[in-house]
Amino acid sequence: MTALIETLNPGFVLVLAGIVGLFIPMQRVRQGLMVIAPLVGIYMLTQANQSMELATAHVLGLDLVLYRVDSLNFIFGLAFLIAALLNAIYALHGDDKLQDGMAMAYAGAAVAAAFAGDFLTLFVFWELTAVSSVFLILRAGTRAAYFASMRYLAIQILSGVLLLAGITYVYQASGALTLQAFTSLDEPGALLVFLAVGIKAAFPFLHNWLQDSYPKATVVGAVVLSAFTTKLAVLTCARLFPGFDILIWIGAVMTVFPVFFAVIENDLRKVLAYSLNNQVGFMICAIGVGTPLALNGAAAHAFAHIIYKALLFMSMGAVLYRTGTAKASELGGLYKSMPFTAVFCLIGAASISAFPLFSGFVAKSLTMSAVAHEGYVVAWLMLLFASAGVLEHSGIKIPYFAFFGHDSGKRVKEAPFNMLLAMGLASAICILVGLPSFFGLGYGWLYNLLPYPEVANHYEPFTLGHILTQMQLLMLAVLAFILLKRFGLYPPEKPGTILDTDWAYRRLGFGFANWAGTVWGKAGPAMTRVAGLLAQRGYDRIEAVFSPRGQLSRGPLTGGMAIWTAALLGMAMLLSFLTVQH
Amino acid sequence: MSDTSSPERDASGRFVKPDAPASPRIDDGEMHPMARLLFGWVSAKATPGIFLWGTITICAGLILADLAVHRHEYLHFAEFNGFYGIWGFGAFALAVLSGWPLGRMLRRSEDYYGEGDTTPQDAGVEDDQ
Fold it and tell me: With an 8 Å Cβ cutoff, are B69 and A499 in contact?
């Protein structure tokens, strides 16, 4: 039993629990299983030896490594398992077999992929995350969710296909499937794998699936979705492409552009989706820098982010659950009826904005220092801009428009207890991780779990300089908010759809396909008719000449024709005979 | 015939003061008791002013403190006094103000893609079963 616990990928346990859960009709039994499975997973992970191939398989001549824990994937896997636990608690109020089961299978797939030691195992669970998570969108039951889920599935599967194509090149070139970093994008298969990761991590222009689908998912579904897919891509990126310069710029752009969309977006869950994009940008940028400090930054940020982003999605989910809307234009003043949710949302907002004493501060400081240390001035300024942007959309806009601001008059019940419990636990993690080190807790706990703990432990986030500069950045940005609001310069929240680059395929591409379909619908029969007409005409002509009723058969010419033909044939034979004779 | 059914008179025919029309102000009696404790100050008249002047004071304090603290930065231009504050203020203002032209440029009707209703079926549960 001990051997099994030490050598079984905890992701498998979660996937199994998810699949079994699909068939358990008793709500409490099923949900008990969903809560226990991640706890078992966390225990298993703590028992695993690091940097060893804990479980291997030999299938079809391929060596697979099913379970390998190292200093990089440990913290991601742990964050996934904690998120799975929080999600399971958050979902307790509802009775939805499919959602419970698929959410756990999805979490399990992400955990299993995080601990995969070879490309093929990674691929299998990479695809499983796509297939299982789509149900979380579909279960919303709206027409919008249906179409969004189909787009989501198509794009996620495309990512999987690209990964598989890349893997075949890698295998052909090296004869092995071991997951190890590429040295350049010119290596066989590297670019395909890079694109696959880029789609899942929502690189700029490949990002639309995220903002399209997450805000249309169910209340619970959006919370679940926020944790896994993009962070699995971040881990894979850190594993395969550390120190790739291009990632610095991709990451920097990723942090900046969602800021502008988030300002004008009305759906607060979509604002969070843009914010997610912006946060992943910090991690991608850090991976591009690739130094131990930067990779620590990416991993710490991923851990902190998974928790506070889940917390923010939970709070907006609670608002949506009670009021039936997550639109800023329809909300406001909810602190009066949902004070606990408001407090938890504020903790999430403070964490994501990286206020000192909250988790975002100790995580983001690592990345900012690493980027500055390597002298990437423009990228650093972009990240600094984005830090103020995060404060705008996630730090202020989310709590302000939902809970404060103009009173919408909505008076609802506080969120169900299980939701408050999940939010409370997430808030506790956000605070405990963000505090100065004490009794093994505080940021020291997080830093010890990072890929390079010895480097992390030399880094001191709570210096006077760090605190002062971060507070300056945040407080003057808060002042800007107050002044802009006071002078009526803050754009009002208006309902509407904000166009993003997905317009290219949702409108232009779809329109073109529609137009092409219409044209084909009309041109097809017309072309068939023309072809038929020409064929008919040709046939008529031939018939008119050669048929028994045709011109050649008519009148005296018939006999003459036969005689001439015989004569010509005779002449030809005579000529050939003479030629042969000579 | 006297108009005894008029709302201005009670059953015995005496005039009564009509009820005040429903106040557009939301009755804070509906407030969650915890909200009163945690956020009772939010709706106080003085709050916006306190917030504004409090923030200004803190900001000024932070900029002044910057004079006293000798910071070591990897990028030397960031050692300029108040650099982070100015950058934060500017970035925030730029992001928010860009919302005006961007909104005009990019905002379409909610049903632009024919997928207007995005409220999931598990939302809007006012009471637990």
Answer: no
Number of domains forming the structure of chain B: 1
Determine the residue among A143, A220, A260, A479 to mutate to test chain B binding: the one whose Cβ has the most chain B Cβ atoms within 10 Å: A479
Whether B113 has a pLDDT exceeding 80, the answer reads yes
Are the beta carbons of A497 and B78 separated by less than 8 Å? Answer: no
Whether residues A263 and B82 touch (CB distance < 8 A) is answered with: no
Q: Would residue B75 count as lying in a domain?
A: yes
Q: How far is A388 from chain B (nearest CA, A)?
A: 5
Q: What pLDDT is attached to residue A559?
A: 63
Nearest-neighbour CA in chain A from B20: distance (Å): 19
Minimum distance, in Å, between the CA of residue B45 and any CA atom of chain A: 14
Buried b (16+ CB within 10 A) or exposed e, A270-309: bbbbbbbbbbbbbbbbbbbbbbbbbbbbbbbbbbbbbbbb
Terminus-to-terminus CA distance in chain B, angstroms? 53
Q: Between A97-114 and A73-90, two packed helices, what is the crossing angle to 10 degrees?
A: 170
* Beta-carbon count within 10 A of A240 CB: 21
d(CA A172, CA A266): 49
The predicted-structure confidence for A399-425, as pLDDT tens digits, reads as follows: 999 999 889 888 899 999 999 999 999
Flag whether B36 is in a domain: no
pTM over 0.90: no
Which sequence spans correspond to the domains of chain A? 1-175+192-227, 241-496, 502-546, 555-582
The interface pTM score, or ipTM, of the predicted complex is 0.85
CB spacing of A260 vs B100 below 8 angstroms: no
In angstroms, the Cα distances linking A376 to A127, A279, A461 are 36, 19, 20
> Are the C-beta atoms of A258 and A301 separated by less than 8 Å?
no
Instruction: Give the whole-angstrom CA distance, residue B26 versus residue A293.
Output: 52
Note whether B73 contacts A490, CB cutoff 8 Å.
Answer: no
Chain B residues in contact with A216 by the CB 8 A cut-off are 115, 118, 120
The DSSP output letter for A413 is P
Burial A17-33 (b: 16+ CB within 10 A, else e): bbeebbebeeeeebbeb
Tell me the β-bridge partners of A52. A69
For residue A445, pLDDT beyond 70? yes
CA within 13 Å, CB half, A516:
6
CA dihedral over A121, A123, A126, A127, signed as positive or negative:
negative
Residue B93 in domain: yes
* Strand-pair partners of A62: A59
User: Can you give the residue range of the structural domain that contains B78?
Assistant: 48-106
User: Which residues of chain A neighbour B111 with C-beta distances below 8 Å?
Assistant: 497
In a domain, B100, yes or no: yes
Angle between helices A359-373 and A268-289 (to 10 degrees): 40
